[in-house]
Structures are given as C-alpha cells and as structure tokens.
From TrEMBL:
Pfam families: DUF1153. This is DUF1153 domain-containing protein. SUPFAM superfamilies: TrpR-like. It comes from Sphingomonas ginsenosidimutans. It comes from the Bacteria. GO terms for molecular function: sequence-specific DNA binding.
Length: 99
C-alpha cells in the first residue's frame, strides 16, 4: 500500500509558459539570480515540483529570502523581482494599500 507518499508532477508551467522539470531548473550552484531564474524557482514551488524546504536547501536560500521572491511576484509580477526596482515596487504597493 502507498501511504504518505507525495505525488509530484513531472513538470510544471514556468513563468514564460515553458515546461519546467527538475532538469531544467537552475543548477544548485547558481549564484547569479536573474529575474527569470527566481521566477522559475517560485513557479516550481507553486506547481508542486519542489517544496520550500527543498528549494532553500538546494539553493542555499533562507525561507525569508524565498518568501520575498513570492511576495514580489504576487504584488508586481516578474518585474517585481528586479533588484534595482524592489524599493520602487515596495513603495508603490504600500501606497496602493492605503487606498
């Protein structure tokens, strides 16, 4: 009998509409996090390909850092992941919350 076995999809839809698999995710030794790579990792978690704990362990991220990526995508989409724009999108979001 199968008990407590987690069934995971073999692939999920990525942020640009492409299929993401474990093989097409950014490599575990990634140090340069561009917007597309961050969005792919968030899509993998949202689609059930990986758990947050697995992502944090695989990429050496903190839960807070990954949660920040998720919040940025939820608030502003992929442009919200741009490091140079984080403060701009953050202040825009805070202004929108006041109204």
């Amino acid at each position: 009998m199968i008990e407590n076995q987690k069934i995971r999809p073999a692939k999920v839809i990525g942020p640009l509409g492409e299929a993401l698999t474990m093989d097409t995710l950014p490599p575990a030794n990634t140090t340069r996090w561009v917007v597309r790579r961050k969005a792919e990792v968030v899509a993998a978690v949202n689609g059930g390909l990986l758990t947050v704990d697995e992502v944090c362990q695989r990429y050496g991220l903190t839960v807070e850092e990954f949660a920040g990526w998720q919040r940025a995508i939820d608030r502003s989409g992929m442009p919200g992941l741009r490091v140079t724009r984080i403060q701009q999108y953050k202040s825009l979001y805070e202004r929108q919350q006041k109204f």
